[in-house]
Specification:
The protein is mostly helical. The protein has seven helices and no strands.
Length: 217
């Protein structure tokens, strides 16, 4: 088999794993959105199920990232842009860490605190924006194998979402500082929204990395 054929196979396998990784992250982000709803409604069973699913998704993403690292290591120099693929995989892995961290903080905030200042609505809006950003990343990863040029167009949409998250995040932090008297809940809300903002930044970083990959193909 020619080296060119081997490179094409290696590329397809790497992109397939990368797409799987982002798909798991998307599902975990949707579970984070469901978690917020179940916390507000006081449905403990649903809350626990969402936490378990997010934990499992995080572990699966880590396993996929390790699998990709091994496969790219085995291909040696066949993939000229292997560093870009690995960089993207590690960024996606970081997003999983943000999801579990945010979930932990949200599950420890008093429901009365969230409802009183309508922080439940603020946080839900922020999370939904990040879910949309990850959905765009999923489309970008799929486009790499079909139409790399469209990946660049989708990157602009991720950037727009990241800016919206950043603006909303600042407003919610100021609101929390002014309206939450309980120090513990204040820190938890602040940390949760900072985590969401950080996750949006990681989505932007992943988008940039996917764009670099698209330009390399």
């Amino acid at each position: 088999m020619y080296n060119g054929e081997l490179e094409v196979q290696a590329k397809r396998k790497a992109l397939a794993v990368l797409h799987d990784e982002i798909t798991h992250i998307l599902n975990a982000a949707r579970d984070l959105s469901s978690l917020t709803d179940s916390i507000i409604k006081g449905v403990n069973k649903e809350t626990e199920l969402s936490l378990v699913r997010m934990k499992n998704a995080g572990e699966e993403v880590e396993n996929l990232r390790r699998k990709m690292t091994r496969e790219i290591s085995d291909t040696g120099s066949l993939m000229v842009y292997r560093e870009d693929v690995l960089r993207t995989a590690y960024i996606i892995d970081d997003i999983a860490g943000y999801i579990t961290g945010i979930a932990f903080r949200l599950s420890n905030i008093k429901i009365t605190t969230l409802k009183k200042g309508k922080f439940d609505e603020d946080i839900s809006e922020l999370i939904n924006m990040v879910v949309e950003a990850i959905f765009k990343l999923n489309e970008m990863a799929r486009a790499l194998s079909i139409n790399p040029s469209s990946t660049i167009e989708l990157a602009q949409e991720v950037q727009n979402i990241e800016r919206k998250v950043d603006n909303s995040y600042r407003k919610v932090v100021i609101k929390a500082l002014n309206e939450i008297p309980n120090t513990k809940d204040l820190f938890l809300v602040k940390d949760a929204v900072e985590g969401i903002e950080g996750m949006a930044d990681k989505c932007q970083a992943a988008s940039d990395s996917l764009t670099i990959l698209a330009l390399s193909m």
